[in-house]
């Protein structure tokens, strides 16, 4: 753990990830998968689109910047109660100070229409949730690797 | 109303034809009667002319007699001139009479006799005139025998004239009666025929009315029936769509919890495998294996529900030989691996989507390779011919008027029992244990779905250990 942290620290500042996921099981699995490569506090979770928008706009209870830091990337589920993934995506891309945050669609769907629409709306990736934990770990590693090491993100 | 006989179109036709015939016959009879009336009118006029001429003739003879007498008594030349004129008159009348009665032999004889008698009288007149001119009187010319001759001559002329008149009068009577008969019969005949025609016409009209009424009822029934049928078809289409939607959604939503089962059992195995005791690890492995199989079933079900749902723009003429050759190139390694020998005959073009036909033949070939005999290299042949009408007739979903290709995919594999020939096309139906042959049994059901969507049928023939033949019937491309 120490070595891992040290290595990350020594190269790059680890990226901050915000996950919008209503399903408790999926949330747990995603957190567990990210734990392999990232410190716990680097991944935060909200349970639906409404909470996501409140978080990003720093509306209570998300006004504590230390506890709820601005994310570098967002993992967004499509099927969520209240404000769904697509509505949240549209809102994010409408807000001037939010639209630069890359949004990765992370969903069970592999529907061609969903893929088409979300890319058109400004999402950065479309990932279908993998079938096994092993696969999930591979995907989270790739996400973390790509967005923290391969690409440069806006400030 | 319930038992009332519905007039057939045939009855209406017969009524119409009878009416038409009656009208024609009626017209013919009327025309014929009119002809008869004209004929008798002419005949009657003819008779009265003959009578008139006869009377004129008789008068002219009397006139001559009078003039002769006047002349011999007074010696006045004027009587002689009058006599000469009336003589010419009589000749003209005789000729006219003769011409008028050309058709009547009896009258011709009578007229001839009359002409003879008149000529005899004229000869006497001439002799009398000649004698008178010579002697200035008739003394010595007249004697009792001559007087009786003159009397006889007159009565004979009178008799003949009367006879002619009698004959003509009789004819006149007869013709007049006929004329009257015909004139009387005409309105009766015309009336009768008109009545008949009107009756039949009314019957026809009524029949047509009844027929139309029945027709309207039948049309309404048919429209109602058609609408019902349409509703039923719509309902069926809807329920089919719903079913497919259901399969899609079910399989899609089923994947969610399954993914979690797999993921958490992965996690459990990874982090706590060493802490599991006894059969714990075995059970965990069983859970994983069952989850994997279930995933396979679900993805297959998804694939099945999607099969045949190709967009219309992707449907075109498909060259089967090209599609199959390309597909075989793609799976060349697998074919070589199994030492399979695949031969292609002359294959037709059919309508459909390339991806679908590719899937069909890939399923059939992989099926044949999968169920090959363990000790024999698989040999598969794909051939095509035109399907016989007897074969087409066996399938109610096919159209008899259409032509069909019969495409055969035959192998030398393990085959199967005849009684399973239908079952192998049902979804998730398998003839062998999972241990012996992997797979969920979805391939052939997808194949059948695609073939049926393209207006065809597929059926299998086989006997155990004698290889299997899959027969596909697909319609010819019509221009």
Automatic annotation (TrEMBL), chain A:
<protein>
    <submittedName>
        <fullName>Response regulator receiver domain-containing protein</fullName>
    </submittedName>
</protein>
<keyword id="KW-0597">Phosphoprotein</keyword>
<dbReference type="InterPro" id="IPR052893">
    <property type="entry name" value="TCS_response_regulator"/>
</dbReference>
<dbReference type="Pfam" id="PF00072">
    <property type="entry name" value="Response_reg"/>
</dbReference>
<feature type="modified residue" description="4-aspartylphosphate">
    <location>
        <position position="77"/>
    </location>
</feature>
<dbReference type="InterPro" id="IPR011006">
    <property type="entry name" value="CheY-like_superfamily"/>
</dbReference>
<feature type="domain" description="Response regulatory">
    <location>
        <begin position="16"/>
        <end position="144"/>
    </location>
</feature>
<dbReference type="InterPro" id="IPR001789">
    <property type="entry name" value="Sig_transdc_resp-reg_receiver"/>
</dbReference>
From TrEMBL, chain B:
<feature type="transmembrane region" description="Helical">
    <location>
        <begin position="12"/>
        <end position="32"/>
    </location>
</feature>
<keyword id="KW-0808">Transferase</keyword>
<dbReference type="Pfam" id="PF05227">
    <property type="entry name" value="CHASE3"/>
</dbReference>
<dbReference type="Pfam" id="PF02518">
    <property type="entry name" value="HATPase_c"/>
</dbReference>
<dbReference type="InterPro" id="IPR004358">
    <property type="entry name" value="Sig_transdc_His_kin-like_C"/>
</dbReference>
<protein>
    <recommendedName>
        <fullName>histidine kinase</fullName>
        <ecNumber>2.7.13.3</ecNumber>
    </recommendedName>
</protein>
<dbReference type="InterPro" id="IPR003661">
    <property type="entry name" value="HisK_dim/P_dom"/>
</dbReference>
<dbReference type="Pfam" id="PF00512">
    <property type="entry name" value="HisKA"/>
</dbReference>
<keyword id="KW-0597">Phosphoprotein</keyword>
<feature type="domain" description="Histidine kinase">
    <location>
        <begin position="249"/>
        <end position="478"/>
    </location>
</feature>
<dbReference type="InterPro" id="IPR003594">
    <property type="entry name" value="HATPase_dom"/>
</dbReference>
<dbReference type="InterPro" id="IPR036890">
    <property type="entry name" value="HATPase_C_sf"/>
</dbReference>
<feature type="transmembrane region" description="Helical">
    <location>
        <begin position="185"/>
        <end position="209"/>
    </location>
</feature>
<dbReference type="GO" id="GO:0016301">
    <property type="term" value="F:kinase activity"/>
</dbReference>
<keyword id="KW-0418">Kinase</keyword>
<keyword id="KW-0472">Membrane</keyword>
<keyword id="KW-1133">Transmembrane helix</keyword>
<dbReference type="InterPro" id="IPR007891">
    <property type="entry name" value="CHASE3"/>
</dbReference>
<keyword id="KW-0812">Transmembrane</keyword>
<dbReference type="InterPro" id="IPR052162">
    <property type="entry name" value="Sensor_kinase/Photoreceptor"/>
</dbReference>
<dbReference type="InterPro" id="IPR005467">
    <property type="entry name" value="His_kinase_dom"/>
</dbReference>
<dbReference type="InterPro" id="IPR036097">
    <property type="entry name" value="HisK_dim/P_sf"/>
</dbReference>
């Amino acid at each position: 753990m120490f070595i891992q942290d040290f290595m990350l620290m020594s190269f790059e500042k680890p990226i901050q990830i915000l996950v919008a996921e209503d399903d408790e099981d999926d949330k747990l699995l995603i957190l567990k998968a990210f734990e392999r490569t990232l410190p716990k506090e680097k991944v935060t979770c909200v349970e639906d689109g409404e909470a996501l928008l409140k978080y990003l706009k720093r509306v209570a209870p998300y006004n504590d910047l230390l506890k709820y830091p601005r994310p570098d990337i967002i993992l967004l589920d499509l099927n969520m109660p209240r404000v769904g993934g697509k509505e949240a995506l549209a809102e994010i891309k409408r807000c001037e100070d939010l639209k630069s945050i890359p949004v990765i669609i992370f969903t069970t769907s592999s529907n061609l229409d969903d893929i088409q629409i979300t890319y058109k709306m400004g999402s950065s990736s479309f990932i279908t949730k993998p079938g096994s934990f092993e696969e999930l770990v591979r995907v989270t590693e790739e996400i973390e690797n790509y967005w923290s090491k391969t690409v440069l993100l806006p400030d | 109303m319930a038992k009332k006989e519905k007039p057939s179109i045939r009855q209406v036709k017969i009524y119409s034809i009878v009416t038409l015939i009656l009208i024609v016959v009626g017209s013919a009879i009327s025309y014929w009667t009119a002809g008869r009336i004209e004929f008798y009118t002419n005949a009657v006029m003819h008779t009265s002319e003959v009578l008139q001429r006869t009377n004129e003739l008789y008068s002219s003879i009397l006139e001559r007699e009078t003039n002769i007498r006047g002349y011999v008594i007074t010696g006045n030349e004027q009587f002689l001139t009058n006599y000469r004129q009336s003589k010419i008159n009589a000749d003209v009348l005789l000729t006219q009479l003769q011409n008028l009665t050309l058709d009547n032999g009896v009258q011709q004889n009578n007229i001839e006799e009359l002409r003879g008698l008149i000529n005899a009288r004229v000869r006497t007149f001439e002799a009398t005139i000649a004698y008178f001119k010579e002697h200035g009187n008739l003394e010595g010319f007249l004697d009792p025998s001559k007087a009786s001759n003159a009397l006889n001559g007159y009565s004979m002329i009178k008799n003949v004239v009367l006879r002619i008149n009698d004959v003509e009068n009789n004819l006149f009577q007869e013709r007049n009666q006929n004329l009257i008969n015909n004139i009387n019969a005409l309105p009766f005949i015309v009336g009768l025929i008109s009545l008949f025609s009107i009756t039949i016409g009314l019957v026809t009209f009524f029949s047509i009315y009844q027929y139309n009424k029945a027709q309207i009822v039948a049309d309404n029934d048919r429209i109602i029936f058609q609408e019902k049928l349409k509703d039923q078809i719509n309902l069926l289409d809807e329920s089919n769509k719903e079913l497919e939607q259901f399969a899609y959604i079910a399989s899609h939503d089923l994947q969610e919890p399954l993914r979690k089962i797999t993921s958490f059992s992965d996690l459990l195995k990874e982090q706590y495998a060493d802490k599991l005791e006894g059969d714990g690890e075995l059970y965990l492995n069983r859970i994983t294996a069952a989850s994997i199989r279930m995933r396979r079933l679900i993805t297959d079900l998804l694939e099945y529900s999607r099969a045949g749902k190709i967009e219309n723009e992707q449907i075109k003429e498909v060259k089967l030989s090209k599609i199959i050759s390309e597909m075989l190139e793609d799976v060349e390694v697998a074919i070589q691996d199994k030492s399979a020998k695949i031969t292609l005959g002359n294959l037709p073009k059919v309508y459909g989507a390339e991806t679908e036909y590719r899937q069909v033949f890939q399923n059939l070939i992989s099926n044949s390779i999968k169920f090959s005999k363990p000790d024999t290299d698989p040999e598969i042949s794909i051939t095509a011919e035109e399907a016989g009408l007897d074969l087409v007739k066996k399938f109610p979903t096919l159209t008899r008027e259409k032509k069909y290709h019969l495409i055969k995919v035959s192998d030398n594999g393990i085959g199967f029992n005849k009684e399973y020939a239908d079952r192998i096309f049902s979804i998730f139906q398998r003839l062998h244990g999972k241990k012996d042959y992997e797979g969920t049994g979805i391939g052939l059901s997808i194949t059948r779905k695609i073939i049926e969507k393209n207006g065809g049928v597929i059926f299998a023939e086989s006997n155990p250990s004698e290889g299997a033949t899959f027969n596909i019937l697909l319609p010819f491309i019509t221009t």
